[in-house]
Amino acid sequence: MAESIHVPQSPSGAIRSGPVIPSPDGKKAIIVHPPRIPDSDETHTVVVKVNGREYSTQIGSWVNAEAQWAQDSRAFFVTYSDGGNVGTYHVKIVYRN
Questions:
Q1: What pLDDT band is residue 24 in, cutting at 50, 70 and 90?
Q2: What are the beta bridge partners of residue 78?
Q3: What is the pTM (predicted TM-score) of this model?
């Protein structure tokens, strides 16, 4: 049975986290939390939720980062730049067997 991915809400019903990228099997998710202080230089915090646990990542500090799950939900990849639009783009693959 797939674990339900819960997006936290404030008492007013507003969503406290940013985008959620659920895995195709619904058991995992990449969750983006916005900066705690919106006008600061703080980056977004990106975690991967698996089996009810959240694992921290460095994805929030990467420039122009984009993520996508594999169809079997066993891996995801992230593309990012080391220098913005003029930088070199990289791909990181996170895989679990």
A1: very high
A2: 67, 92
A3: 0.75
